Amino acid sequence: xxxxxxxxxxxxxxRQVRKGLADDAGYSTETVIVTALLVIxxxxxxxxxxxxxxxxxxxxxxx
Length: 63
Fold this sequence. Notes:
Blueprint: H1 3-58
Protein name: Integral membrane protein
Keywords: Membrane, Transmembrane, Transmembrane helix
Transmembrane segments: 32-54
């Protein structure tokens, strides 16, 4: 193998790697956004449930 063929193969491989990374970038971003939205919705649901439980607990008469 000559230096030229090694360089050409390396450049071709680098192009394929860059293309593969570019193809996955959108999916990764979408996954992060969906995960963040699910976390926010989960925190909101926990807050609502906690408020309702505390409201019911404060309404209990122990006397």
